[in-house]
Design a protein that fits this description.
alpha+beta; 20% strand; single chain
């Protein structure tokens, strides 16, 4: 920059977790990953969900010998939050051991997440803790949601 001028870091969009709150969300997703029950795939995944009220619910993947009955970390976290009366979410962080690749939610999880809106952040992490953030709408464009049922 000219003259050594420094610009302040851009402010996070309203509602996006910042600072310690964001670090807690990311850490809770890593901690949840350590609880994963994945004897078949050996692919542990953890998720941490931030509600509009500021509470964090974590979840991990839970596999089953009848493969189709397993459940992903993202859906586990959402189901925990729903069972405690929360239906409005601000962000979710997802963690795995994928090395140099960012973990992304599967299609089924994206659709379940979509049930609760499109304007919330999803933090996709790498094993080293680095992350990128996407809006749910970016992960599931042209989606189908509850409002579409009213169009019939």
């Amino acid at each position: 920059m000219e003259g050594g001028e420094q610009r302040p870091a851009p402010a996070a969009p309203p509602g996006r977790p910042q600072g310690e709150r964001l670090q807690l969300l990311l850490r809770r997703s890593q901690e949840a990953k350590n609880c994963a029950y994945c004897p078949y795939s050996r692919f542990p995944v953890g998720a941490a969900l931030l509600t509009a009220g500021g509470e964090i619910f974590s979840g991990c993947n839970v596999e089953n010998a009848c493969y189709s009955l397993g459940v992903c970390a993202e859906r586990t976290a959402i189901q925990k939050a729903i069972s405690e009366g929360h239906t409005s979410f601000r962000a979710m962080a997802i963690a795995s051991d994928m090395g140099d690749h960012f973990i992304t939610p599967c299609g089924a999880c994206r659709q379940v997440m979509r049930e609760f809106g499109t304007d919330w952040d999803v933090y996709l992490t790498k094993a080293d803790g680095s992350y990128i953030v996407k809006k749910l709408e970016e992960l599931l464009p042209l989606s189908f949601g509850p409002e579409d049922l009213k169009k019939v």
